Fold this sequence. Notes:
Strand order of the largest sheet: 4-3-2-1-5-6
Mean pLDDT: 79
Structural class: alpha+beta
Distance between the termini: 63 Å
Helix content: 25-40%
Shape: elongated
Strand content: 15-25%
Largest sheet: 6 strands, antiparallel
Number of strands: 6
Amino acid sequence: MKYPPVEIRIILSSSSTRQTDHVVNVKVMPNGYVWGYNDPTVSAYHLLELKSVDEVLRQFDIMVSGLTFDIDPFRSLQFNVPALPPVMVFVRDLHLHVASIKKMLQNALVRVPQAMTQDEANEYMEQDEDEDADDEAEEEDEYANMPPLVALNESPARHGYFTRFQERLQAGNNVGTHTYFS
């Protein structure tokens, strides 16, 4: 299974196309994260290696800060976060949604949703259902091995629970200083 990146599309205007959008991809790597920025105006792809989710969120804050005071601003940002529907926010309203967007990013980077085909997903879900059935069977076995319940107004001795204790008591063995009534 592969791990899809978080994609942030930075859209210049309503007439922009996928080819003219600036794009940030955040990829999960074995030793951290890679923040990649594609600037189509200069055909450049910039990479930053980041060690933690906190560093990714700091880089996001830096980007948001720059976008909010830009004198020739972009129009909007589209957030394509794995396992969530795409979300688009106008740059002028970005400051209102930063906390929510950071939660989305953090969730995707910490929990790392996996991309798979529909057939793979169905197989995965069937395995999960099989494991649940096994867990239920084990739980039923545990309950089957438990002694029967005794009503609170009945004596446990009446049901033979204290047989060993009673035998030791009758044999004169020291069974402690507690007094038991039956």
